[in-house]
Each structure stands twice: as structure tokens, then as C-alpha cells.
Amino acid sequence: MNNKIFILIFTAAIFFLPGLTSAATLSLSPSSGSYSLGQIFTVNILLNTQSAAIDGVDIMYLNYNPAYLEVQDENSGTSGIQILPGSLMPNTVQNSVDAVNGRISFSQVVSSPNTFTNSAGQTLASVRFKVLQIGTQPVTFNYTANSTTDCNIASLGSDLLTSVTNGSYTLADTTAPSIPANLTAVAISSSQINLSWTASTDNIAVTGYRIYRCAGSGCTPSAQIDTTANTTYQNLSLSPSTTYCYRVAAYDAAGNVSSQSSSSCAATQAPPDTTPPADITDLAASNVTSSSVTLSWTSPGDDANVGTASSYDIRRDPTFITDFIWNNAMPVIGEPAPAIAGTSQSYIVINLNPGVTYYFAIKTQDEVGNISGLSNIVSATTQALTLNVSLSASPITGSAPLNDVDLTAAVSGTQTGTINYTFYCNRSDNGTNITAPYDAKFDDISATTQVAADVCDYINPGSYSAKVIAERGALASENRTTVTVNNPSPSTKFSINDRARANSIINVRANPSTSAVLLGTHSLGDLGIVIGGPTYADGYWWWQIDYDSSPDGLSVENFLDKVPNASNIVFLPRLEGTANVLNKNFAITLTESVINVQRAQFTRQTNASGQIIPSSAEISGVSEGNYIVVVDADYFLRKRQTNVSVISSATITLPILPAGDFNNDGIINSLDWSLMNNNWFTNFSTADINKDGIVNSLDFSWMNGNWLKADE
């Protein structure tokens, strides 16, 4: 294997400082040499005290270019990079490498009180460099005469260093690339052979490849014909039916050339066939049906009218076929293979549309791609087919909602094949375009009658156009029938001013429609007054409800119940001072609690059982619910009772009326006392609160207890 070698050129730089009685030097050995890329070589730092006794040496610094040279670490057990110390002095106090900036620091000193002396160059330390790239590079001591902050040789506080010897190193690449492998030659045509091979390798980089060629079977390629940087090559302009042999050699930028590869040979192809088949001139059309035409012709040959061609290309188009139209004409599928020239051949073109004029033409191709011109052009018009469909609905009329309507389609005409039926409950447009959503679809049906049972539900009143589209073969037909939906009889669930109660969570909308603006909802049990309706829409009866709480609007009656009127209500009145309420008139007012609307007001005398039982007419506006009950009687203060539950057959105990308002002015005061006082110790019944037959202090005590109280 060849090697790339650094050529090491020495340039010695000697710095001498006169005037000192003692002198010492530092030098590099070797100061020149030849090394290959990647090779590791050693440079020794030599010390010569020239018989002077010294205390130590500082190398600060030994400079190198880290892009070209890499210092090898001599102590893997210590962090950083260290060079190899010599044994001239026992103490190495500094040993480090700045690999980024390319600087080596090294110091070695004696053990006091000893000194070191020698008279010839000895190894102070050794540096191993690895070559990274080509180029001439110096390695130099950082030395300036009379400076004590760079490289020093110390003796009794003085620097004895008078000169240094630097080095300079140059790389030369002498390693050739590896030999290309797997060379392959392939003939592409009668004038071209393509080469390919496996890439060579090089210690730096392969620059390119030399191509060698010779003509003749078994020849040895020796003439270089070209170079390339790729691992493929196209050799053009060759002679047909000729064998060529090739070899390849790799070279690099330094001019190193590998040995040639093994030979690979290939023979160019024979000259191409350029004679196309003859044009067909007797193309004819016959046996025309609604979907097919039979074409017939006499087969041409491979070369004009000789031999057997390779393939036919038959095309059709609804316009006359020219060379310009040919590319856009539709190719048929399954053409027969050409027979020997002069043979009668035929082909049935299928999948044609009925009632259409088609033009036909043929081109013939041989095995190498030569194509004939257009044949003569023939035309044929396919037979037309018919398809009709009728539609009926059952029932065809009724009141909304009209549900479970059947649609029945019946197909007639000359078209054959299975039928696709598509039904729409309301589609009035003309045409046979099938769009989603449809209401029923039946495909691949053999029967000419198809029923879509219970397919249509018509919610709202109106006229609806039911439609069917029938598809059979390439034809489609459509028809429609009108379904009439009448207004339903109005709902009688509610009357205006009825109380209604939500029987579930219920929506309130701005208009009578399920798609109208949603104003809000009410919860189960929420109450309201019916103030409008009914209106029929979207399959529901809608009522305008004035709910007891917001929002108000239109709601569906399915989610509302009528609140029944209260009946058979019994009131039990009570008076202060006596349990006797018989034959006494009481005025009673019922006001609905939530909406504060008065529903009933009547005055009635108690019956023999002390009850007040209003008539149906007196409480006709009272529905079951919570009420404010106000009760009043002559000579007693009026009382008010809230949240009274009023339901049918309820017995309601009324609040006790305070006694003492003898003048019925709504307050008990001195005016009432004057009446009592004027009738003291009489049987004046108005002031006889306890009804014991005499007006006295017992009656006054009742009045006094209610002093300045007023009606509620």
C-alpha cells in the first residue's frame, strides 16, 4: 500500500545574545522530516546548558498550527493533554497543551540545592504530533532575546537562553487511490454503452477516474478516452454491432493513479428498425347495436406489408379523427394481436352510448416502436334506446301530519338491464341528476315496478312534489306526482286565558317553528297563561304562553298540560272573640300568587256548618295553584293570607279576623271605643264581641288588644 508522506523541511533559526559569559540553547530534533497524512511522529525538545549550572527550564510556549498537527496525549490518567517529560530534572511543574490555539507549556526544575548541567543537547521533553492535512507548517519556540516571560533557562535568577532552533514540516501525498471494482459495461443502443463501477477510496479524496477502451472481442483496453468525476460513464457515438472493452483507473489531486480495474466488455446493438407497418386502408364498420360496433380490416406487416406487426391502437371519437384529433381520441381496450400480413381481422367496440355517431381509426406498431399512419376513417351511429318511468303516491292527499306515504314507480321502454330507483318525497326540479339526500334508493333491481313503502312523512300543510329517477343501462328517466297535505283540525287542548303547566323542560321560541329563534326554556312545573294560538307548524300545535316568569313566547302543546279549574272548595272562616260564625257574611278575594292576578271575588254567608262554599260561577276563573286569600267581614279587620294552595275539593281554613272595627273604617281606634262606650252594659250585638249578650270589659279587652291595628 502506498503512503502519503509529509516532507519535513528544516529551517533553523538561531538567536544569539552576546554579552553573557554563559549561554544555553533549546532546539527541536528532528527539525525536518517526511510524514504521511495521519502518521504520528515524534519531535524532541533538546536542552544544552553549555556546561552552565541551571535551576530549571520554561517552555512558554512551543507553537504549532492545530489545523495541521495534533498533539498526542501522553498521560490519559490526567485531564487535558500532556507531552512526555524527559528525566533531566526531577520536577515537572508545568505540562499542558492548548489544543485550540496550538501552544505547548512545559517547565522542569531541579531539587534544591542541586543544579543541572550538560554540554550537549539532551531530551528535555518529547512531543508526538499527528498529521491532519497537507501543507508546510512550522513548530517554533516563543522566544525573544532578554525576555523573561517566554522560554527561559534559569540560573541564579538569570535567563541563560541565547538561541533556539525551530522546525518546519511539509506534507507530500504519495498514496494512490484503491483500484475501482465491479466495472460493468451495458449496451444501451447501437451507438451507446453505459459504464458503472464501485467507487475507489483514498486517504484524502478521489479526484476522478480515467476511462480506457479498445474495440474487438478479448482486446486489452490501453487507450485513455476520457475522465470523469462520477462512478458512471456514457460512451456515445459508437459503431453498431461492435464489441468494446473497458478498464477504469482512479486518481487523486496529487496525481497518484491506481492500477486499472478488470476489463468489462459489451457489444453495441444492431442498427435500429426504422420501417413502420403499412397504413390500413380497408377499415370497415358493421353490426351496429345500441352499444357496440364491429370493425374489420386486413392486417399489415412489420415492415410495410411484410411480416407480422406487434400491436394495434384502435381509437374512437364523436368527431372526425385527424392526426390532430388522434391524441385526444379514446383508445379502446383489448385490441387483438396483429396477424401475419394480409390476414382479415375484426374487433367489436363495446360500451358505446346509444344514439351517438362515432368515428374509428387504427394505427399499427412494430416491435421497436415504429408506428404506421392513420388508417382510413369509418363512422357508425349506435341505435337509440328509450326509458320511461311513472310515479304514484298512496295516500295522495290527507291532513297534516300525513305520514307513511307509499311511492310506487313503474318503468317502461326498450332499454334493458337492472334498474336503479331513487325516490324523493319533495323535489320539484326537472332532470335526472341524483343528489343526496334522497329518501329511498333501490339499486340493481330486476323488477320494473318498485314500491318505497312508508317512505314519506309530510308534517306541514302544503303541496309536495314527489319524484323518482330511474336508471337503466346508460339511460335515466324521471317523473313526479303531487301530494296534497291539508290543514289539520285546530287543537282544542287549551282556550284563551287557560292556565298551562310545563310537563317537562320546554323550549320557548319567537315564532311557531322548531328552527325559530330560541328565546329560552322553562322547567318542569312552570306555569303560564294561554294568550294566543293554536298555530300548526313543523308537525306541532303551538300556543302563545304568557309565562309567570321570563321568557314568554310560543311553545309546543305536547309539552304543556292544562291546569284544571279548582272546584268544590270549602272555606272555614274564623272570628276573634267567638266561635259563632253562623249566618255571617264574608267577602273573599282570590289572587294568583306568582302573577298577582285576581281570579275571584265573592261575598257569601256561612251555611249551618259554618262553611262558605262558593258556586262554580264564582270561582270559574280559579285554576289549581297558589293564591293570596283576602277575607273581610263587617265590624272586623280584613286579613290577608299568602301561598294558599287551592286545589279541587280543598278545605281552606281562613285567618282569624281581629274584632273591634265597629265603624268599618279599616282601623280600631277611639271612634270604635265611643260606640262601645255608648252601649256599655247593653246587649248591642255589634259591640258584643264575645257574643255573651252584654257589652262589658271582656269585650273591651278584645278591642284593647287590637288597638290601632288596621286592615291587611
Describe the structure.
- By secondary structure, the chain is mainly beta.
- The chain has six domains: 168 residues, Immunoglobulin-like (Sandwich); 87 residues, Immunoglobulins (Immunoglobulin-like, Sandwich); 98 residues, Sandwich (Immunoglobulin-like); 99 residues, SoxY domain (Immunoglobulin-like, Sandwich), CATH 2.60.40; 64 residues, SH3 type barrels, CATH 2.30.30; 88 residues, Immunoglobulin-like.
- Helices cover 3% and strands 44% of the residues.
- It is built from three helices and 49 strands.
- Strands 1, 4, 7, 8, 10, 11, 12 and 14 form an eight-stranded antiparallel β-sheet that branches. Strands 2, 3, 5, 6, 9 and 13 form a six-stranded mixed β-sheet that branches.
- A hairpin with a 2-residue loop joins strand 35 and strand 36.
- It is flat and about 165 Å long.
User: Are there runs of 5+ residues with pLDDT below 50, and where?
Assistant: 1-21
**Number of helices, counting only DSSP H or I runs of 4 residues or more:** 3
Arithmetic mean pLDDT: 90
Number of strands: 49
Shape category: flat
- Return the CATH topology of the largest domain: Immunoglobulin-like
Query: What Rg, in angstroms, do the CA atoms define?
Result: 61 Å
DSSP helix fraction: under 10%
Sheet with most strands? 8 strands, antiparallel
SSE layout and pairing:
Blueprint: E1 5-7, E2 24-29, E3 40-48, E4 56-63, E5 69-71, E6 84-85, E7 91-98, E8 103-109, E9 122-131, E10 137-141, E11 152-155, E12 158-159, E13 161-165, E14 167-172, E15 181-187, E16 193-198, E17 206-215, E18 223-228, E19 232-235, E20 243-252, E21 264-267, E22 284-286, E23 293-298, E24 311-317, H1 323-326, E25 330-331, E26 344-349, E27 357-365, E28 378-381, E29 388-394, E30 397-399, E31 402-412, E32 419-424, E33 440-445, E34 449-458, E35 462-472, E36 475-486, E37 499-502, E38 506-509, E39 518-522, E40 527-537, E41 540-547, E42 553-556, E43 560-562, E44 570-575, E45 585-592, E46 597-605, E47 625-632, E48 639-646, E49 651-657, H2 670-678, H3 697-705
Parallel strand pairs: 2-13, 30-36, 44-49
Antiparallel strand pairs: 1-14, 2-3, 3-9, 4-8, 4-10, 4-11, 5-9, 6-9, 7-8, 10-14, 11-12, 15-16, 16-19, 17-18, 17-20, 20-21, 22-23, 23-26, 24-25, 24-27, 27-28, 29-31, 31-34, 32-33, 32-35, 35-36, 37-40, 37-43, 38-39, 40-41, 41-42, 45-46, 45-47, 47-48
